[in-house]
Amino acid sequence: MALLATATPPCGLLLTARASASSPGCFLRAPRSRALRRAMAASGADAAASGGSAPPSLLVFSGGTAFNGVVEELKKVTTRVAHVLPVSDDGGSTAEIVRVLGGPAVGDIRSRCLRLSDESTSEALSVRTLLGHRLPLDPSEAKLEWYQIVEGEHALWDGVSQPYRETIRAFLVYFHNEILRRSAEMFCFTNGSIGNFFFAGARIFFQSLDAAIFLFSRVSQIPAESLVLPVISTNDRLTLGCELWDGTIIRGQNEISHPSHGRKEVVNKDCNSCSALPSRIKRVFYMSSEGSNLLHEVFPEANRTVLEQLSKVDCIVYAMGSLFTSVCPSLVPCCFVFLFVHNCIT
Hints:
Layout lengths: L2 E4 L9 E5 L2 E7 L3 H17 L8 E4 L6 H10 L3 E5 L6 H10 L5 H10 L5 H10 L7 H12 L11 H20 L12 H13 L2 H11 L7 E4 L8 E6 L4 E3 L1 H5 L23 E7 L9 E2 L5 H7 L4 E4 L4 H9 L3 H7 L5
Parallel strand pairs: 4-5, 4-11, 5-6
Antiparallel strand pairs: 1-11, 2-3, 7-8, 7-9, 9-10
Helix pairs in contact: 2-4, 7-8, 8-9
């Protein structure tokens, strides 16, 4: 699924809405890839007319995995892209970090940062390989390999210079120490992402998700004009929920998209990997992660940088990703400001 909403400044955003008996409510529909090419061409023409040569600027709402294949090609067209990603994923390696250490989910952000990272030198490729590495599925083997990595003895460090090695390893060690401090919780390293561990260590050290993204971006040498933005900038755990048309409330992103019994180390994201929900989804929202009433709805504020970018870019892209667990979670906090900025409401 890829939807586009184009705007050629200073004109307003072009959107259409449709509702039908078979699909209650309305959704935004906009032109497909041809419109994106037109928007890019228009932006290029505007830049040429003003004597500049700036490529088009985009803001992309997407999932953490589905759009990654497009990122490689998009980098060849423009690096002026703000990638807006949800931080409510509670499956796989991310789930274990959130379970033991709390905080927002960093898996989707880490995945996008890796796709945007520099590949021009052998060291850049070595850093990307290290941060993109996953530990084995066998618990004993995973723990053994993790100790080799955190102690700096693993072959993955080959090709990484001393300054980079010490910077990355410092936050892996910090992450490990945070795990050891939680003696009541046994951490499972199975299929763990080294990039997720580095990211979580940086976030806890700085007490800032934005600072962790900044550090990861610099270590990975992501172009300065390429932004990776959490739709909600927080240090707290975020839980996604949904209400079905039959009144059922489901808690947790993974239970919405890939319902299962018990915790799974590897989430199968194939569309046929799990059974359908008992009823259609009516709405998605954020739920309380603390207190006794875990079904309580909460309303987190959208990241201000995301709202600023919404009013500045040439084109807004609703890209590939799960509609209800990737795209909608990013739209929920931005909804009213998004419509106001583009004169859809007053």
